[in-house]
Amino acid sequence: MSDDSPKVPAADQTLRILSLLASSRGPMAASMIATQLGLPRSTVYHLLATLQEHGFVMHLPEERRYGLGLAAVELSSAYARQEPLTRIGRPLLAGLVDRLGMSGHLAVPHGRDVLYVIEERAPGSPPLITDVDVRLPLQLTASGRAILAALPKAQVRALFPDRESFVHRHEDLEGIDRYSRLRTVLDDTSTRGYALERGSVTAGLASVGVPVLDHRGWPVAAIAVTFSESRVPDDAYPGLAAEVRRTAETLSTRIHGRSARV
After folding, report:
1. Is 62 found in the same domain as 109?
2. N or C: lower Cβ tally within 10 Å for the chain?
């Protein structure tokens, strides 16, 4: 639809209300919704009543506020069931693997882990422990570090409140066993412009990763490629990361996100 296509005011206002509630940290008063969206209060109350009738909004009478209802949650579940991220990402990742001749992955955050949802192996590539439905600690992988570096610092701190939060596969060469050390790695990631992992998952293998962002700039996934350290000189890493970033940005755009920036 072009920018000059006619809008349906009620539909536009309804979607704006739902988007505002979805981005809010909690239920909101109708007056606040009206103020933030610049809509008449009477219009907001009318639309909220209709949304409530269909289950997309719930009213909390004691608090005099409105929040998302079960029907909105069901939409989210339906989105997950249809696997749009995987469907859209698979051909993009396949193209990246073909161009670089390296294995590639698409992973999503799952608690303190990353969950691999797409795995594309390049011919002749070294064997990997990653595969579809495999989970690995966020702080050990390039995908996980790309996601963590794109999160607010308070969110990362909440995920890793103490040393017991850090799980390791083997002796961690980078010694990420406390938040301060993780923070250093993530700050380096932001400065560098891409996530880098060398030997933390499998000795002799390295990975670079970039986040995939949604419309709020929130990291919903990450794309990474893995290769033998001995075959790729350090000065080639930025070029690899640029290719990964282009793929991540394309995927971000196709899920109505924005350019990926660690």
Report:
1. no
2. N
Cβ partners under 8 Å of residue 209, min gap 6: 141, 142, 143, 145, 146, 194, 195, 197, 222, 223, 224, 225, 244
Q: Is 23 exposed, middle or buried (0-12, 13-18, 19+ CB in 10 A)?
A: exposed
Q: Which residue in this structure is represented by tokens 């209300």?
A: 17
Which of 46-50, 126-130, 133-137, 216-220 has the lowest average pLDDT? 126-130
CATH number of the domain that residue 58 is part of: 1.10.10.10
pLDDT in tens, 120-134: 999 888 778 777 888
Q: How distant is the alpha carbon of residue 256 from its chain centre?
A: 13
Of 77, 94, 115, the position where a domain reaches its end is 77
Last residue of a domain, one of 77, 103, 124: 77
Is 116 in the same domain as 142? yes
Please state, rounded to an integer, the average pLDDT across all residues of the chain.
87
* Model pLDDT, residue 1: 43
Distance CA 225, CA 234 (A): 15
Domain that holds residue 121: 83-254
